[in-house]
Amino acid sequence: MGLAVKYALLAPVPCMHLPSALDVCAAHGRVAFATALETWFTDEDEDKLRPEEGWPVLIYASRPELGDANVNKGLFLGGRVPFAATYAGWTQANDQGRHPHPELRPMSTETDTATLGFWEVADLHRLDQPVRIADLRMGKKRPAVGFVPRRAYVVQWQGGL
What we know:
Elements: E1 6-14, H1 18-28, E2 31-35, H2 38-42, E3 56-62, H3 69-73, E4 80-92, E5 117-132, E6 153-157
């Protein structure tokens, strides 16, 4: 019998934010990442699949050109997902476009521009075995060769954290 197919959230996070995100999650039990995709997380369209609390989150270390190149070399794995977490929910930004609990944000995001909201995860950790993006399914298809996630996606994945 094969592994059960389950849904996961695949999301890019710039490499420069991952070291402090790991620290924040260890200290506070969760960490918040900004997004402008508010309706993707909150829209009530019942025909659209959206992440639910408890879902696995596969975090692609993106944008290796930003921040410290030496640190990023150890985080960025093109075509593979080196981090995972558990989806913990959505938080609307305050009137200034900031998280209402700034301690849940990676320190590296202090100069970020205002945003609409934040997706939050718990148990952020580095995977012992990175997940190949080519092994995921997006709908009925596998991602195209060379696919790079630029936003969050619901994927099907046969695996476990």
